[in-house]
Design a protein that fits this description.
The radius of gyration is 32 Å and the shape is elongated. It is α+β, with helices and mostly antiparallel strands and 598 residues long. The longest helix is centred in the N-terminal third of the chain and has 23 residues. A hairpin with a 7-residue loop joins strand 17 and strand 18.
């Protein structure tokens, strides 16, 4: 019979307190810090690009590149296959731009064990999962974390394990919560036909991505089994986090590690190009749907030039996406989005993309295939080159596309002038009728040309509507403000009084572009009330009409906001109703203004 002495009670208490710590340490030993090592060509390109942007005054973009080059991190966990081969499971977005990967495991005493040169064996684009393989022959773990055999249930206790950042450094965190929706179907995150997601309240912070969502299991060696992989956090609501369920993760592992039959290189490329064309042809898609086909090799070769092209000539909706990805996620990914837009644009308009088809795949080598892309609108097929990257075939080169109509125009010009027409890539200035800026804030000095009114100040905000999605922003609506001093009296002396007119305005402009220089002739009209009449009885309270015509323009430096200058003629007419003379107060003036466009 066991006797509970004071000494044994103390021992049991200590043992009970230590049990969770022991389990904690076991789980921690299987969860690591995942760090990308970028392609050397990408790093070199970005360093040069950062310095060039800084020298040209693009400070925000230069800072974004500098921050990116310092590197980031996520989490991942050990999976050991049946044959003993070691792998790391993580999120695709944690290693999407990696040439190689390192994984660090933190010991109970704080020591770090690091493994370098892991390869991204596969990165799935539909479900945000990736599998990392250790260098050949290296299998440091005899066992890894195992998957739960039961699906998630509402109200179930769960734990998140990983290394979220604190002061820029990864710090171990085991957070507890519960399943709040065992089958959340959110098509913006994952196609519901592929899998539902686990919504839970366990802690997820930056750096948790790729770490496991756990449930307790006394029969498991680590004391926990994997219920899912942590991937997303919704910032608009408290404790709303999402994980990919274990069943979907296991299906992905099986697809990658144990494929039924691996097609030949030519067949793999054919399937990939077929999917590319199908995504191009979908009527409800946009350029972001083909980002997954753009290789990082393509980014290193042409990303910076096309990024600047997107800043200067892409529609504002495209620019806002590209800039947001560049600044908030990664410069490399921002350039990748810019390249996707460039390819999308060169493939034609919505009704023309359905005409795209692929020619025969040529297997140049086991790692390079070429495919001609055909269309009724192309004079000749466009040559494309595809390479394998992270287990997927991606576009490394998209050749020049010459339209049939463009060729006919070129021939006509040659016949008419007797000279060879210039190539579209020559240094001749580019002329267009587009304005990538949707909004304008204008403030100016009003130089009066009338004796009854003094010099004044005017300001306005105008939003120019993009009616057809092609940046043909000709008509705008907004609010105008006008302030000056006037003399309302007629035929007798009276002091000048303040006038403060506010009212809606309508503006029409003709946007002209020559390269990066924009010239915009415009005319606007506004009707407003003199709000200064509320301050004093001796100021007229009648309505005022304001008409303006002029030109504004400037140079597009490729930044989010650019500064233009304006010169215009302004005519203001107001009723002198407070004196019941029936006369109108008229003012002519010249306005010099500064304009911010964005």
């Amino acid at each position: 019979m066991f006797i509970h002495t004071a000494k044994t009670k103390r021992f049991l208490f200590i043992l009970i307190c230590l049990l969770p710590i022991t389990v904690f340490a076991q789980v921690k030993s299987y969860v690591g810090i995942v760090r990308e090592k970028y392609h050397a060509s990408s790093v070199s390109m970005l360093e040069e690009y950062r310095d060039a942007l800084q020298s040209k005054g693009y400070t925000s973009y230069a800072k974004a590149i500098d921050s990116y080059l310092k590197g980031g991190f996520g989490s991942g966990f050990v999976y050991v296959a049946a044959d003993g081969t070691n792998y790391i499971i993580t999120n695709r977005h944690v290693v999407s731009q990696a040439e190689t990967v390192s994984v660090e495991f933190e010991g109970d005493t704080g020591g770090i064990t690091k493994y370098d040169n892991l390869k991204v064996l596969n990165a799935d684009e539909e479900i945000d999962l990736a599998i990392l393989s250790f260098p050949k022959g290296i299998n440091p773990f005899k066992t890894g974390l195992t998957f739960s055999t039961k699906p998630a249930a509402d109200g179930q206790d769960v734990w998140t394990a990983g290394f979220p950042g604190l002061a820029g450094e990864p710090l171990w965190q085991l957070g507890k919560g519960s399943v709040t929706n065992a089958a959340a179907r959110i098509k913006d995150l994952v196609d519901p036909d592929i899998t539902a997601l686990i919504q839970h309240s366990a802690q997820i912070d930056g750096g948790n991505s790729g770490g496991p969502l756990l449930v307790t299991d006394k029969s498991a060696e680590a004391g926990y089994t994997v219920l899912g992989v942590n991937t997303w956090k919704y910032r608009g609501r408290q404790d709303t986090n999402y994980s990919i369920p274990a069943a979907a993760v296991q299906a992905y592992i099986k697809k990658v590690l144990y494929p039924d039959a691996l097609p030949a290189v030519k067949e793999q490329t054919e399937m990939r190009v077929r999917n590319f064309i199908a995504d191009i042809a979908k009527q409800d898609n946009d350029f972001t749907d083909i980002v997954k086909y753009i290789s990082y090799s393509y980014v290193a070769a042409e990303g910076k030039d096309v990024f600047m092209k997107a800043l200067s000539s892409a529609p504002s909706a495209v620019r806002s996406v590209v800039i947001a990805v560049f600044n908030n996620y990664s410069p490399i990914e921002g350039m990748r989005y810019a390249l996707a837009w460039d390819v999308w644009k060169r493939l034609g308009k919505d009704d023309e993309r359905s005409l795209i088809s692929a020619g025969e795949v040529t297997e140049v080598s086991s790692v390079v295939c070429t495919v001609p892309i055909k269309s009724e609108k192309f004079e000749n097929p466009v040559e494309t080159r595809w390479i394998p990257e992270h287990g997927l075939w991606r576009l490394e080169l998209f050749g020049e596309a010459q339209e049939k109509d463009a060729g006919n125009k070129k021939d006509k010009k040659t016949k008419k002038t007797g000279r060879k027409a210039k190539d579209k890539n020559a240094d001749a200035p580019f002329f267009g009728l587009e304005n990538p800026y949707g909004s304008a804030v204008q403030a100016g000095f009003d130089a009066s040309l009338s004796k009854d009114a003094k010099h004044g100040f005017c300001a306005s905000y105008t939003y120019f509507w993009d009616f057809n999605g092609s940046d043909a922003r000709w008509v705008g609506f907004g609010l105008g403000l006008y302030a000056d001093k006037v003399n309302y009296a007629t035929g007798r002396k009276a002091p000048d009084t303040n006038r403060f007119i506010v009212g809606p305005l309508v503006s029409v402009q003709v946007p002209l572009s020559i390269g990066k220089v924009y010239v915009l002739p415009y005319a606007s009209g506004s009707v407003g009330f003199n709000w200064a009449s509320f301050a004093s009885f001796d100021k007229a309270d009648g309505l005022a009409g304001i008409f303006e015509a002029g030109v504004k323009g400037g140079y597009d430096f490729g930044t989010d906001v650019n500064a233009f200058l304006g010169l215009s003629y302004k005519y203001v007419v107001q009723d002198r109703s407070i004196f019941r003379t029936g006369n109108l107060l008229k003012k002519n003036s010249i306005v010099i203004s500064a304009i911010l466009v964005f």
